[in-house]
Amino acid sequence: MSILFPRSSSATKRKRVIRELVQGRDYATQLKFLLQKPIGPDGSVSAKELVANVLRSFTETLSVLTSSEVAISGDHHRDEVAQNLVISGEDASQVESIDPRSEGSTESKKGSKDRRGSYKRRKTEQTWTIVAQTTDDNHAWRKYGQKEILNSQFPRSYFRCTRKFEQGCRATKQVQRIQENPDMYTITYIGFHTCKDTLKAPQMVTHSETWDSFLGPDANDVPNEHDSTIGSQSLIVKQEYPNDETDPSDLTDANFWSDFKDFELSNDKPAGLKIASENADTVYSCTGSRSLDMDFGIFSSHFCSTEDFHFDESQLL
DNA sequence: AAGATTTGACCGCT
DNA sequence: AGCGGTCAAATCTT
Which residue range or ranges hold the WRKY domain (predicted)? Predict the structure, then answer.
């Protein structure tokens, strides 16, 4: 990979660029919010598209910048970045689609120590975290572990997709009660669902049962096209790109999260243009630069109106 | 009986 | 060394 920013000289410059871009995008997000309020059935569409393009432009730039940051870091710094950014091309060590144990297991695993624990950590997997009142997210999960966590009063539970072995779905999540507020859970999703979860998790999120209710009455500005395709069918289409092939109509994550900001804005927040509230009931943060097309189902029904999203841009800096 | 959960063991990573 | 993620046998639930 090529190095776009010489590390020593341009590090601060790079940060500045990113900061400015982030800021600019936030402004565009706010503008978008303003535009969509007095929405005329026909009038504001082009303006919205314009703003969406601005947003996308920022997002793309950020994406390029940040991915080059990955390229720069060929050292320990890499891990830190990798937590936050998608690594192009999956780590070869974790591409197993189906757990090798499930079949074969021909090796002598009984006699001596079994092979439990011999796995590759999925460090480069995209992760995102929410704080919510429910752990239910319309996906079928199978609990596979629980751990006491240091300095944490509540244990952390580990779940994998029930389709892991059937379909090689690699999605996992971790759930932990919040110490300060035991009614709430921190839920960390790791990896995307690549399964067709027909039983519990309809990937298709219908408009009426999700965003409408989520957004409230006057949040009719349902995402479309690049702008924000959350919950719309185009997301489902993107399941055709389960890995990292580039989907021309792909959303970048940041675009995606920007749209969640919109939801926050158009939700229960009074006209104030607060993008990320520190005291939000629900914080949403994301790592990874891929679109979240596999998992919109999780947002569909459980983000109650008091919840907020937060895309933590500071992770990029 | 099959699927889900529990729980101690195992092991990668820092 | 020890934390945390995963495994898998035992147990529970449906």
Answer: 136-193
Question: Does any strand B atom come closer than 7 Å to the Cβ of A140?
Answer: yes
pLDDT per position as a tens digit, A186-205: 899 888 887 765 544 433 33
A160 CA vs C13 C1’ separation (Å): 19
Q: Give the closest residue to A263 by CA, choosing from A247, A248, A280, A251.
A: A280
Greatest CA separation for chain A: 72
Report chain B positions within 7 A of protein CB atoms.
3-14
DSSP state for residue A252 in the 8-state scheme: P
Confidence at A6, pLDDT banded by 50, 70, 90: very low
What are the b/e assignments for A4-21, b being 16+ CB within 10 Å?
Answer: ebeeeeeeeebeeebeeb
SS3 A149: coil
By C1' distance from the Cα of A110, the closest nucleotide is: C8
pTM of the full predicted structure?
0.46
Q: Which are the contacts of A41, defined by CB distance < 8 A and separation ≥ 6?
A: none
Residue closest to C2 C1′ by Cα: A150
- CB A136: neighbour CB atoms within 10 A? 12
Residues in chain A: 317
- Asked if strand B comes closer than 7 Å to A119 Cβ, the answer is yes
- What letter does residue A195 receive in the DSSP assignment? S
Rounded-to-integer distance, Cα A61 and Cα A18, Å: 9
